[in-house]
Write a structure and sequence with these properties.
alpha/beta, 5-stranded parallel β-sheet, binds ligand CA2, 6 helices, Rossmann fold
Length: 146
């Protein structure tokens, strides 16, 4: 069975409670449930994890490698823009990874347009709200479909 982990970075635990104009009004728990339903239709085994801590996200990437996960979907939050440590973890483990963003990072402040993570990912999906995660899951499903 294909195993995929969805990682969410800092402040994404606040989803649905603040700034609905930018990030929508769905909570992270709701998003998780929706993605678990979609994963089940693809027969994908899905893990879901959120942390506000850079090192914990890196530990999860290492764990995914040790446990033979096939793919990663990551919304690194603001770490997107400056975490060379998360970038190195993805690059070192070489697990096919898709970077996702709820908002369009190219249509906001200038500092958000730059991702230091995207160059080590197989793709980046930004600006489609929760559908960014669904699109990433679909893309990984297609990639591993035999
Ligand atoms: O658009 C995205 O998904 C981001 O990764 C979200 C990050 C931001 O730093 C990135 O530039 C783009 C921030 C997540 C903050 O989430 C909140 C959710 C609700 C209320 C406040 C913040």
């Amino acid at each position: 069975m294909i195993r995929i982990i969805i990682l969410n970075g800092p402040n994404l635990n606040l989803l649905g409670t603040r700034e609905p104009g930018i990030y929508g009004n769905q909570t992270l728990q709701f998003i998780q449930k929706r993605l678990e339903e979609e994963a089940a239709t693809y027969r994908i085994d899905l893990d879901f994890y959120q942390s506000n801590h850079e090192g914990k996200l890196i530990d999860k990437i290492h764990e995914a490698y040790k446990n033979g996960f096939n793919g990663i979907i990551i919304n690194p939050g603001a770490f997107t823009h400056y975490s060379y440590a998360i970038r190195d973890a993805i690059s070192a483990t070489n697990i096919p990874t898709i970077e996702v963003h709820l908002s369009n990072i190219h249509a906001r402040e200038e500092f958000r347009a730059k991702s230091v993570i995207a160059p080590v990912c197989i793709g980046q999906i930004s600006g489609l709200g929760v559908d960014a995660y669904s699109a990433a899951l679909f893309a990984l499903h297609r990639r591993f479909q035999s």
